[in-house]
Amino acid sequence: MLYLMRDACDLMLTPARMAAGVAKTACQNPFSPFAYTPSSRAVAASCELFERGTRSYAKPTFDLPASERVVWERPFCRVIAFGAPSAKPKMLIVAPMSGHYATLLRGTVAAFLDTHQVFITDWADAKQVPLSAGRFDLDDYIDYCIAMFEALGPDLHVMAVCQPSVPVLAAIARMEAEDHPLVPQSAVLIGGPIDTRHSPTVVNKLPQERSIDWFRQHCIHAVPWPHAGHGRKVYPGFLQLAGFISINLNRHQTAHWDMFNHLVQGDGDSAAKHREFYDEYLAVMDLTGEFYLQTIETVFIEHAMARGLMRHRDEPVDLGAIRRCALMAIEGEKDDITGIGQTRAALDLATNLPAEKKTYHLQIGAGHYGIFNGSRFRAEIAPKIAAFMQHNASAVSTVSESVLGDVAAPRSGVAQAELPVAALIAREARSRSSASPEVQP
């Protein structure tokens, strides 16, 4: 019923949005002398904010300087390749299936276009997938990951951003347990909830305060007609977006008030940046209900992976089986979604992976979004990821012993991505103790 009411409200507001658009155009007409007065600019700004605040946002495009082609596809996901096939190292970016579209990682993709053959998962909006396509839960997600690794391998490197860190790590563990020849050479886990018992955030605490039945009752709704997936039980994107906004409500209110002032003052560049960000941020997709509930229960309530209790198709997900795929964990000092230590836990759980194949990086001053996008990501994190992948590529075994020794042996001034995890954790702890005493290692 909630979903139906939301769609009905959207339809009822359509005439008001049209009227606001007409009023905005009239107030901005360059042939009208009133268009140059502060009052007219204020009316136009109000009309724009009303229209933007009440409409639904379409799926954005990547709009990158590279051609796009689909190289793998199933009902709930397709893999997009950027540019023509090449001899560059292959990198699969597994985008979050958590409300936003894969285009949220546009900057992440752009950072590696020159150095890698980049692929990205483009998850489907569940409300657009017919019921005839069947279910999609966490087990299916892991199956999809394994199938993608097989299709894009060998010599594949994987980057999981936030939510997919758990299914990607589970897929790698299952492949390692079966001695699969196409297991990825390396995996980078960015802000992933591997063990949410570490530095729990607001997002982590809510599942501990509610039962799975509460989530089933309050978060799962049937998709109404005329959507292609009508009848499917989903966690609606608009509900997830409301949760995202509520975490930083004051920041979003300030951003919209600033945009109003920019429009009144005629600051078109600042207003354009606001539109660009929120056109992406406010575009959301639905998740299948079974995937959402299984993820909540497995990851946030039971901590199944961290406790060694997670299973996939009745087979154990044992991170101790990982012995070939190198792991890199990246966290942000100011991450309010995935707390410090939650992603790093993967390195501790992979007990049989050699220490030289484990790398940890804590980005000082970065929040959740900043560890996979923005200036800090481009300048500091992306080069470390590229160096980590290069060091753990198959070609590294053919490098001369002298060169390999230079890379493997930590020394003064060496890049963080080249340090074993134990040394890096110690360095980050010393850095935090001197620069940010309020942050716990």
Furnish the topology, listing elements before pairings.
Elements: H1 2-12, H2 14-27, H3 38-54, E1 68-74, E2 77-82, E3 90-94, H4 106-110, E4 117-123, H5 138-152, E5 156-161, H6 165-177, E6 186-190, H7 202-209, H8 212-219, E7 221-222, E8 233-235, H9 237-247, H10 249-265, H11 268-281, E9 287-288, H12 289-301, E10 311-312, E11 315-316, E12 326-332, H13 345-349, E13 358-363, H14 375-391, H15 401-408, H16 421-435
Parallel strand pairs: 3-4, 3-5, 5-6, 6-12, 12-13
Antiparallel strand pairs: 1-2, 2-4, 7-8, 8-9, 10-11
Helix pairs in contact: 2-3, 3-10, 5-6, 7-12, 8-12, 10-11
Biggest sheet layout: 8 strands, mixed
How many structurally independent domains? 2
According to CATH, what is the topology of the largest domain? Rossmann fold
Distance between the termini: 46 Å
List segments where confidence is low: pLDDT < 50 over at least 5 consecutive residues: 395-441
Q: Estimate the helix proportion, in percent.
A: 40-55%
Query: How many β-strands, per DSSP?
Result: 13
Protein traits:
eight-stranded mixed beta sheet, 441 residues, three-stranded antiparallel beta sheet, PHA/PHB_synthase, Rossmann fold, PHB_depoly_PhaZ, PHB_depo_C, disordered C terminus, Polyhydroxyalkanoate depolymerase, alpha/beta
